Amino acid sequence: MSKRMTESQIVAILKEAEAGMPVKDICRKYGIGNSTFYKWRGKYGGMEASEAAIINLLGELGDGSTSTSRNNRNG
């Protein structure tokens, strides 16, 4: 079973670590692995929740923008 967390939840978790909570305790509290925490820190570290949401939105826009212009041609 896979649990997905929103960017704002991830940023909040990372802020707990910045505040001094040990990574081991954070991982146990949220049921995530150390590797997941450090991947998130590499991607979202130092960001605010709104910045992380904007980056995610830009990524989604970039994934589908070329397929619509190429696939909608007639002929």
Automatic annotation (TrEMBL):
GO molecular function, one term: DNA binding
InterPro entries: Homeodomain-like_sf (IPR009057), Transposase_8 (IPR002514), Transposase_8_domain (IPR052546)
GO biological processes: DNA transposition
Leader sequence residues: none
Pfam families attached to this UniProt entry: HTH_Tnp_1 (PF01527)
Family (UniProt): Belongs to the transposase 8 family.
PANTHER family in the record: LOW CALCIUM RESPONSE LOCUS PROTEIN S (PTHR33609), TRANSPOSASE (PTHR33609:SF1)
Protein name (record): Transposase
Source organism (scientific name): Pseudidiomarina andamanensis
